[in-house]
Amino acid sequence: MPSSNYFLVNEQDRVLAMVDIRHELGGNLYHVGGHIGYSVRPSERRKGYATRILAEALKKCKELGITRVLVTCNKDNNIGSAKTILNNGGVEDEAFVEEDGNVVRRFWIKVK
To answer: Most-buried pick from 5, 24, 35, 45 (CB within 10 A)?
Structure first.
Protein backbone atom coordinates (compact mmCIF):
# COMPACT_ATOMS: atom_id res chain seq x y z
CA MET A 1 0.00 0.00 0.00
CA PRO A 2 1.24 3.50 -0.71
CA SER A 3 2.16 5.46 2.41
CA SER A 4 3.77 8.70 3.56
CA ASN A 5 6.01 9.16 6.59
CA TYR A 6 6.48 12.37 8.56
CA PHE A 7 8.51 13.34 11.61
CA LEU A 8 7.96 15.92 14.31
CA VAL A 9 11.32 17.45 15.23
CA ASN A 10 12.38 20.14 17.67
CA GLU A 11 14.67 23.13 17.10
CA GLN A 12 17.75 20.90 17.53
CA ASP A 13 16.50 18.49 14.82
CA ARG A 14 15.77 15.81 17.41
CA VAL A 15 12.93 13.51 16.37
CA LEU A 16 10.09 13.72 18.89
CA ALA A 17 7.46 11.68 17.06
CA MET A 18 6.74 10.01 13.75
CA VAL A 19 3.64 9.14 11.78
CA ASP A 20 2.91 6.78 8.90
CA ILE A 21 -0.13 7.56 6.75
CA ARG A 22 -1.39 4.66 4.66
CA HIS A 23 -3.25 6.05 1.66
CA GLU A 24 -5.52 3.00 1.31
CA LEU A 25 -6.76 0.17 3.48
CA GLY A 26 -6.70 -3.46 2.51
CA GLY A 27 -6.49 -6.80 4.21
CA ASN A 28 -5.22 -6.61 7.77
CA LEU A 29 -4.89 -2.81 7.65
CA TYR A 30 -8.68 -2.55 7.62
CA HIS A 31 -8.99 -4.58 10.82
CA VAL A 32 -5.86 -3.78 12.78
CA GLY A 33 -3.46 -1.26 11.21
CA GLY A 34 -5.70 1.55 10.06
CA HIS A 35 -4.77 4.59 7.98
CA ILE A 36 -2.47 6.15 10.56
CA GLY A 37 0.21 4.74 12.81
CA TYR A 38 2.21 7.02 15.07
CA SER A 39 4.81 6.82 17.79
CA VAL A 40 6.36 9.27 20.24
CA ARG A 41 9.90 8.97 21.59
CA PRO A 42 9.56 7.47 25.09
CA SER A 43 11.34 10.41 26.76
CA GLU A 44 8.90 12.83 25.07
CA ARG A 45 5.61 11.12 25.96
CA ARG A 46 2.86 12.85 27.93
CA LYS A 47 3.78 16.24 26.44
CA GLY A 48 1.02 16.49 23.81
CA TYR A 49 3.15 15.40 20.85
CA ALA A 50 0.91 12.43 19.99
CA THR A 51 -2.17 14.64 19.81
CA ARG A 52 -0.28 17.14 17.70
CA ILE A 53 1.20 14.67 15.22
CA LEU A 54 -2.16 12.94 14.77
CA ALA A 55 -3.80 16.32 14.10
CA GLU A 56 -1.14 17.12 11.52
CA ALA A 57 -1.59 13.69 9.94
CA LEU A 58 -5.31 14.34 9.57
CA LYS A 59 -4.50 17.52 7.62
CA LYS A 60 -2.33 15.44 5.28
CA CYS A 61 -5.14 12.92 4.90
CA LYS A 62 -7.41 15.74 3.76
CA GLU A 63 -4.81 16.72 1.14
CA LEU A 64 -4.71 13.08 0.00
CA GLY A 65 -8.51 12.99 -0.36
CA ILE A 66 -9.06 10.61 2.54
CA THR A 67 -12.33 11.72 4.14
CA ARG A 68 -12.71 9.07 6.83
CA VAL A 69 -9.67 7.76 8.69
CA LEU A 70 -9.30 4.57 10.71
CA VAL A 71 -6.92 4.73 13.68
CA THR A 72 -6.37 1.78 16.01
CA CYS A 73 -4.68 0.97 19.32
CA ASN A 74 -4.32 -1.98 21.64
CA LYS A 75 -7.03 -2.16 24.28
CA ASP A 76 -5.01 -3.44 27.21
CA ASN A 77 -1.82 -1.38 27.11
CA ASN A 78 -2.49 1.81 25.20
CA ILE A 79 -4.97 3.99 27.09
CA GLY A 80 -2.94 7.12 26.23
CA SER A 81 -3.28 6.45 22.52
CA ALA A 82 -7.04 5.98 22.85
CA LYS A 83 -7.24 9.40 24.55
CA THR A 84 -5.15 10.91 21.75
CA ILE A 85 -7.51 9.49 19.13
CA LEU A 86 -10.58 10.68 21.02
CA ASN A 87 -9.03 14.16 21.37
CA ASN A 88 -8.77 14.27 17.58
CA GLY A 89 -12.44 13.41 17.01
CA GLY A 90 -12.25 9.61 17.01
CA VAL A 91 -15.49 7.67 17.31
CA GLU A 92 -15.04 4.13 18.54
CA ASP A 93 -16.14 1.27 16.30
CA GLU A 94 -16.35 -2.42 17.11
CA ALA A 95 -13.14 -3.90 18.50
CA PHE A 96 -11.26 -6.55 16.55
CA VAL A 97 -9.60 -9.57 18.14
CA GLU A 98 -6.33 -10.62 16.51
CA GLU A 99 -5.30 -14.25 16.15
CA ASP A 100 -3.04 -14.00 19.22
CA GLY A 101 -5.96 -12.82 21.37
CA ASN A 102 -4.93 -9.16 21.46
CA VAL A 103 -7.94 -6.83 21.39
CA VAL A 104 -7.57 -3.86 19.04
CA ARG A 105 -9.75 -0.79 19.55
CA ARG A 106 -10.83 0.81 16.27
CA PHE A 107 -11.74 4.49 15.88
CA TRP A 108 -12.99 6.41 12.84
CA ILE A 109 -12.23 10.10 12.42
CA LYS A 110 -14.12 12.22 9.92
CA VAL A 111 -11.58 14.47 8.19
CA LYS A 112 -12.68 18.11 8.09
So the answer is: 35
